[in-house]
Design a protein that fits this description.
With about 290 residues, the protein is of the alpha+beta class. The protein is built from 7 helices and 9 strands. Helix 1 links the parallel strand 1 and strand 2. Helix 3 crosses helix 5. The chain is extended and about 90 Å long.
């Protein structure tokens, strides 16, 4: 996904789906910096130490561990205290004081001690909550809003993971990656077809995905055509050119299931289409593409 920007020393911000020590090492090898939040991918990550370290100052306190190679800092693992502990891995920024973030939160007002038991609790009020954060975290949270929007498009609108049920990890990774490609295509389409005068694209998100599916299903655009090396007169060349144009016209995709059939354990072709099952719209084997 990031190879086009290799050796540019640009920063990659990742959520817990991608973030790990291994990912940070891979990014360093191809000349990219990395910041990510760590949740379950804790291999080679000092999760045990950062979990036990005391954070008595409350929100905004952070403690980090630095990995050095030849007296040069190469990687930073740290914990930052917000409402709860959050763990990060970084090769891009430091724990120097950054711009604090402010949020509006509801807070319950406390009654004076002499009024305890005499009056009901006061109504909660909205207060501004300011929490200090390191420079590394400031860079990450300036970017993670786009990550959350991308995840929302993929999980709530496209919903490939919900429609295609599987227990194979490689298939789940492939479908999730394909979903990211589809969302990236939608975001590019929306960015290229809207401006300040036309803020709404011609196709909404669902219509765009259906149109994209029509162009992907059973197309033969990558089919290799071969021909014999033979001398042709002008009339034969005109006929051959017309046939090629007709072939390309007939390549228009159709909104239907693949024409390929499944094979049984003996290798014999069955009557069932070679495609997955959609558990949202139909429990059996659908014969048309899912809407």
């Amino acid at each position: 996904l990031v190879l086009p920007w290799a050796n540019s020393q640009r920063g990659v911000c990742a959520d817990s789906y991608f973030a790990s020590v291994t990912s940070a090492e891979e990014m360093m090898q191809i000349g990219l910096r990395f910041i990510g939040v760590v949740k379950t991918a804790t291999k080679k990550y000092p999760m045990g130490y950062l979990t036990r370290v005391e954070l008595n100052e409350g929100r905004g306190q952070r403690v980090g561990v630095v990995l050095k190679n030849r007296n040069r800092s190469t990687m930073l693992a740290y914990v930052w205290m917000d409402r709860d502990r959050r763990y990060f891995i970084s090769t891009a920024e430091s724990l120097a004081e950054g711009k604090p973030y402010s949020r509006i939160r509801w807070r319950q007002q406390e009654l004076p001690e002499q009024l305890f038991g005499e009056e009901d609790n006061e109504d909660p009020v909205r207060q501004e909550l300011t929490v200090s954060q390191p420079k590394c975290l400031e860079t990450y949270y300036d970017t993670c809003a786009a990550i959350d929007q991308h995840n929302r498009h993929r999980q709530d609108n496209l919903r490939i993971e919900r429609k295609l049920e599987t227990r194979n990890w490689d298939k789940r990774v492939a479908t999730s990656t394909f979903g990211m490609y589809c969302v990236d295509t939608w975001l590019m389409y929306r960015g290229c077809t809207t401006d300040s005068l036309h803020p709404t694209p011609k196709l909404n998100q669902q219509e765009f995905y259906s149109t994209l599916a029509e162009e992907l299903i059973d197309n033969n655009l990558q089919q290799v055509r071969t021909r014999k090396r033979a001398q042709r007169n002008n009339e034969e060349r005109v006929i051959a050119s017309a046939l090629i144009v007709t072939d390309f016209i007939n390549l228009a995709p159709q909104l239907r299931a693949t024409s390929q059939k499944k094979k049984n354990s003996a290798g014999k072709i069955t009557k069932h289409c070679s495609q997955g099952r959609c558990k949202v719209c139909y429990k059996g084997r659908p014969t048309t593409i899912c809407s």
